[in-house]
Amino acid sequence: MVITVPATSANLGPGFDTLGLALNLRNEIEIIPSEKQEIEIYGENADFLKKLPRNYFVEIFTEHYKYLTDKEPKFKFKFNNKIPLSRGLGSSSAVIIAAITAAYEAAQVPYKKDKIINLALNYEPHPDNITPATLGGFCVAKLRKNRVYFLKKFIPTYLRAVIVIPNRPISTQRSREALKKTYPLKDVVANISSSSMITAAFFSEKFDILKYIVEDKIHQENRMKLVPDLFKVREIALREGALMSTLSGSGSTFFNLAYKDDAYSIYAALKDNFKDFNVKILNFDNLGVKVYN
Ligand SMILES: Nc1ncnc2c1ncn2[C@@H]1O[C@H](COP(=O)(O)OP(=O)(O)O)[C@@H](O)[C@H]1O
Ligand SMILES: N[C@@H](CCOP(=O)(O)O)C(=O)O
């Protein structure tokens, strides 16, 4: 069995813990029945991941597989990772969603994607990465009374993401701990209106308005100060025609939305100015987690 799961970009600026979308940058995990448990890790941060005392995927997979079957798992896991760690591209959500999905598949217990999202909440208590990692597309998610409610919209194929991945990681947990605990009413209103406009723009496919309405007053500017070059990244991307330019999740990656025809000039300008950063043009993913048996 092979499971593939996409990277995600959460928040989209003002939609803190609410908006997210999936990118066509996927981790792939092969799971093969075996006499003894074995792990092989290739790709992004493989050396770091190999050194960890416990593998996060195997831990979550084992917990669910044992619960579903009452048996110890006996599998070989082969990871081919493309999603960089702690760069705001939802690497932890990708692991969680893939591991729970894999456990249900290996145990041959039927499930719905809704169930996977709600189980994932036990590991990541904000739904803006786990929802698009599961469903793909542009997702709006709301957590209420410990349950995730969500709506998804397909992202048109004439759009691209131009992402800038700095060489510095930011831990999501640590950067959340540094957030202010209270906000002035005008800042809250700015985020509600901007986030609602982004949602309306994606659902009605009226993307031009994004250039004028995206602002965040809750988390983004403070987090950007950890990698000050990001202010210049945003300025260049918007100057070169990006529809919106926001911190991806808690950073350090910057996410730029563009029409297909504008993506290359944004990419070239960013690459030219930030030689140490990894700049990529990506398609969007509209499928979410996928299983091949
Ligand atoms: N492919 C992977 N395999 C195992 N663990 C992973 C993998 N990707 C991420 N993780 C775990 O998730 C952590 C990163 O989570 P986090 O700081 O929330 O970053 P991100 O913004 O990428 O989600 C890593 O330190 C590691 O513990
Ligand atoms: N809403 C969360 C999103 C974190 O995304 P990640 O990809 O950085 O894990 C937040 O802003 O903390």
Using only CA atoms, what is the Rg? Answer: 19 Å
Alpha-carbon distance between the two ends: 5 Å
Number of domains: 2
Order of helices and strands, N to C? EEEHHEHHHEEEHHHHHEEHEE
Domain GHMP kinase N-terminal: 61-137
Main location: cytoplasm
Enzyme class: transferase
Binding site for ATP: 84-94
Task: Report on this structure.
The strands form two sheets. Strands 1, 2, 3, 4, 5, 6 and 11 form a seven-stranded mixed sheet that branches. The chain has a four-stranded antiparallel sheet with strand order 8-9-7-10. Helix 2 (56-69) packs parallel to helix 3 (91-107) and helix 3 packs across helix 5. The protein is globular, with a radius of gyration of 19 Å. It is built from eleven helices and eleven strands. With 293 residues, the protein is an alpha+beta fold. The termini are close together. It folds into two domains: 2-154 and 286-292, 2-Layer Sandwich (Ribosomal Protein S5, domain 2), CATH 3.30.230.10; 159-282, Alpha-Beta Plaits, CATH 3.30.70.890. It has helices at residues 46-51, 56-69, 91-107, 113-120, 127-135, 172-177, 185-204, 210-213, 220-224, 229-239, 260-273, and strands spanning 2-10, 19-33, 38-43, 75-81, 138-144, 147-153, 159-165, 244-247, 254-259, 278-282, 290-292. Catalyzes the ATP-dependent phosphorylation of L-homoserine to L-homoserine phosphate. Residues 61-137 form the GHMP kinase N-terminal domain. It comes from Lebetimonas natsushimae.
